[in-house]
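Q: For a teaching handout, I want to show students what a protein-ligand complex looks like in token form. Below are the inputs, and the small molecule is alpha-D-galactopyranose. Please produce the holo structure.
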Amino acid sequence: MQTLTLTTVAGLAAAGLLTGCGSLGRPAGTPTDTPPPTATFTPRVLTWEDLALTPPMGWNSWNHFGCSINETLLRETADAMVASGMQAAGYQYINIDDCWMAAERNADGSLSPDPAKFPGGMKLLADYVHGKGLKLGIYLDRGTETCSHFPGSYGHEVQDADTIASWGIDYLKYDNCSPAPGSSMVTDYIRMSDALKATGRPIVFSMCSWGFPGSWVTTQKIAHLWRTTSDIKDTWESIMKIMDANSVPAAFAGPGHWNDPDMLEVGNGGMTDTEYRSHFTMWALMAAPLIAGNDLREMSRATIEILTAPEVIAVNQDPLGNQGTLVGKIEGTTKPEVWAKILAGENARAVALLNRSDRTAEIRVQWLDLGLPEGPATIRDLWLRADLGTFPSGYTASVPSHGVVLLRVATAVGNIPTVTPAA
Ligand code: GLA
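A: Here is the structure, written as tokens, with alpha-D-galactopyranose included.
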């Protein structure tokens, strides 16, 4: 069977492949508007969830730069994403956060960028980013003002969605500040989701909801990701707190829709490289969006190695889309934790042995705790990128304080696992 690969929504429209509910684009015009497909291939309709079948990977300006952003920074960041090897490792979104707008809307109600920060305008910037094979994201807010007091999108949803689509934006982070009096979070987010879908442009929708919003976000296909917590900080305590909170709605993650424990702090200077490795590992294991939040133009070798670790990223991007969870914890001074993520294929798990304590700990994982059948399993260390051998019933590692060991554990194909992935 032949497959059709169409890269633009215009192409889809021309081929008459845009459909109604759940697909992208305004309803088609009269039947004579679009010629019928003539080839014998089976057309593939681009659906909403296809835009994030695995957790999005990219960069966002907020964690490192706050409001100190401009066009030069954005261009240099796109350059650095390519030069550092991050693009080759899977990162593709360059996301502008708050503070990009002019202080007031235009006379016709539309938004424009601050002319001092973005003199070339967003369309030109999008062209530049697209020219590198990357995608451009932007930030809006569901209320009357953004969190940094720029114009909010309440009552302007369709106009703002059309504006960012016309600039060539590929990803929208939609924040939660300054709700309009009497407004509802559910209605506001659905309104923007509908407005984005109606533009016909594929735009990933990231809800910055500061808490799991409810099952409606997945059942009604409202967003591709939603923030499950308040803002991350560049400290070990913050990372651990957010990780625990993000685990509660784990069952709601899957291809096309992800829990978002906030952007990464790797490389921002507040933690050790061991802690950053744990932060990145746990975000990968939780199938979290991997949105770097550091200055990509000035990265240490260790930071680059963490952000581009191929086998850790492969765990994050595993097509099954399972969110890893805590499977074993022994209370006590060393607080060892065993976390596991079900991987695509038979009887394979990614396993993190996480040491939250302030001293080195021996952490053991038993295959039975992973829902794997009894019997030997082969294991690979995904940071060392080395096979460790075959072990009969479990494995013990010595893990430094605030460190992690990440393993791939697989038993023989054909054995029946005792747990199945969450729906
Ligand atoms: C909120 C969000 C942050 C960031 C800021 C910008 O606090 O949660 O991620 O976008 O607003 O003002």
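A: Two things your students might notice: Residues 62, 97-98, 147-148, 175, 208, 231 surround alpha-D-galactopyranose (CB under 6 Å). The CA atoms of residues 132 and 391 lie 45 Å apart.
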